[in-house]
Design a protein that fits this description.
Helix 1 crosses helix 2. By secondary structure, the chain is α/β, with parallel strands linked by helices. Helix content is 32%, strand content 23%.
């Protein structure tokens, strides 16, 4: 959304007029890191009117035994979203766009119950909300000492093995690995962690 955008009233809805025409003021929710081996999952919220971005993290413990098998990360995602929406100050006339990721299944239902189905839409998140959420995740994994691959979105499998090789060199960081996936234990690095 261009910084030069101006607000005006159109009926009972607030809209932005920018270089691309009219767009309804929205809050967009996205995630990053759910399919990666390292760290938890970043949940980001982007407000189209203010261009404010905030995020929080589903801790990696929710992607490790025993919490992962109970799918407690789904409930945690919902709690984080409601906390972030309170912080960003969701207004009564604002639409909520939420990523189609499975991680938001419970959150989407809870949002519909709280705000009504007409205000909640599941979408494929692109553009600035997606970029900011991904950047937040990359910053978090860099804080662990890991340097992600360039263009990692296009190299999912390679990124997974790059992270695993990094963990082999830094075994003290294994506590930051998502070890709840049943297939993870077929790799030598994780066999000793299996109960």
């Amino acid at each position: 959304m261009p910084a030069r955008a101006i607000q005006f009233i159109y009926g009972n809805n607030r809209w932005l007029k920018g270089l691309g025409g009219l767009s309804r003021i929205t809050v967009t929710i996205d995630d990053a890191g759910s399919g990666d081996l390292l760290f938890g999952v970043v949940i980001g919220i982007y407000h189209s009117e203010t261009q404010e971005f905030i995020y929080d993290v589903i801790d990696v413990q929710y992607f490790q035994p025993p919490l992962f098998s109970r799918k407690e990360y789904l409930e945690q995602a919902s709690k984080i979203i409601f906390s972030l929406l309170a912080r960003i100050g969701l207004k009564a006339d604002e639409q909520v766009l939420i990523c189609t990721s499975y991680i938001f299944d419970i959150a989407t239902e809870n949002l519909k119950q709280m705000y009504g189905s007409s205000r909640i839409s599941k979408i494929k998140v692109i553009g600035e909300p997606q970029r900011l959420t991904e950047t937040a995740y990359l910053d978090e994994i860099r804080n662990l000492g890991y340097e992600p691959l360039d263009n990692r979105e296009n190299k999912r499998g390679k990124s997974f093995f790059h992270m695993m090789q990094w963990l082999e060199k830094h075994p003290e960081k294994i506590k930051y690995a998502k070890t709840g996936w049943p297939r993870i234990y077929r790799y030598r690095l994780f066999k000793s962690l299996k109960n």
